[in-house]
Amino acid sequence: MGTIRLKRAYEPADLTDGRRILVDRLWPRGLAKAEARIDQWMREVAPNPELRKWFGHQPDRFPEFRRRYEEELRSDPVHRRCVEEILHAAERETVTLVYAAKDEVHNHAVVLLDCLYHWRE
C-alpha cells in the first residue's frame, strides 16, 4: 500500500512524491505548469465554490468548514468517485496531494487527507 501525503504547490517536486494530484479547483497563481509537474488535476474533489468562498481561509471558520466539506466528500457522488480514484492510486504507488493554500493547517487538503486515511481503514 502506497502512502498519501500533502505538499504545497510552491514546494519543488521530487521523485519521492510519486503521483502528484492537484486537488485545488483553481490553478495555483504564478506557477508554471511545467514547473508544477502535476500528473493529474482533480478539480472535482475540491470544495464547491460556495463553500470555498464562505471559508475564505479564515482559521476561526475551519471547524465548520471541515464539517461541511467532510459531508460533501461523503454525500456527493462526484466527490466520492474522486476519493475512490485517489485511494485506488495509493494502492499502487505513493500519492502526493498538491494544494496552493498558504496556511498548511487550515485548508481543504488537510481535511481530504484525514478523510482518505479514515476511509482507507
Q: How is this structure best described in words?
A:
This protein is α/β, with parallel strands linked by helices and 121 residues long. The protein has one domain. The chain is built from 5 helices and 4 strands. The protein has helices at residues 33-36, 49-55, 62-75, 77-92, 108-120; strands spanning 4-8, 19-22, 40-41, 95-99. The longest helix has 16 residues, at 77-92. This is Uroporphyrin-III C-methyltransferase.
Secondary-structure topology with pairs:
Elements: E1 4-8, E2 19-22, H1 33-36, E3 40-41, H2 49-55, H3 62-75, H4 77-92, E4 95-99, H5 108-120
Q: Based on DSSP secondary structure assignment, what is the total number of beta strands?
A: 4
Structural class per helix/strand content?
alpha/beta
Strand content bin: 5-15%
> pLDDT below 50 for ≥5 consecutive residues: which ranges?
none
What is the number of helices? 5
The first-to-last residue Cα distance is 12 Å
Rg calculated over all Cα atoms: 14 Å
Q: How many separate structural domains?
A: 1
Outline of the structure:
InterPro entries: YeaO-like. The chain has helices at 33-36, 49-55, 62-75, 77-92, 108-120; strands at residues 4-8, 19-22, 40-41, 95-99.
Name its key features:
121 residues, alpha/beta, 4-stranded parallel β-sheet, 5 helices, 4 strands, 45% helix
